Amino acid sequence: QVQLVESGGGLVQPGGSLRLSCALSGSIFRIASMGWYRQAPDKQRDLVARITSGDSTNYADSVKGRFTISRDNAKNTVYLQMNSLKPEDTAVYYCNVIALLRWDTLPKNFWGQGTQVTVSS
To answer: What's the average model confidence in pLDDT over 11-28?
Structure first.
């Protein structure tokens, strides 16, 4: 059974930094991409950043230059380094992995449980 375990959220002052981690456990054939989404109260869940198996990355315009996504393939872990945090970054952050369970199956979406990030003075 595939599980995603997130860590690293919390309360930080504006201008501060946090680093989120998401580790995948369970048996998979291949990871296609790993990413982070966020959802603020009464808003839809939006993509923050994504990194593919070829290490291509894309970011939401609102976080470009402040957030960095990276991955450790040996640990099946994805990270999100968040710098220069703003109050508008406050949200629940969700890890997302698209992976193939077997070589002959279609990719599946997996989600973490979410971790709260609050930026406030």
So the answer is: 96
Using CB atoms within 10 Å of the CB of residue 42, give its burial: 0 to 12 exposed, 13 to 18 middle, 19+ buried.
Answer: exposed
CB contact set of 112 (below 8 Å; sequence gap of 6+) = 4, 5, 6, 22, 94, 95, 96
Q: What share of the chain is helix, strand, coil (3-state, %, to 5)?
A: 5, 55, 35
Burial of 114 (0-12, 13-18, 19+ CB in 10 A): middle
pLDDT band at residue 7 under the 50/70/90 scheme: very high
Tell me the one-letter amino acid at 41. P
pLDDT tens by residue, 66-112: 999 999 999 999 999 999 999 999 999 999 999 999 988 899 999 99
Nearest alpha-carbon partner for 96 in 48, 44, 42, 56: 48
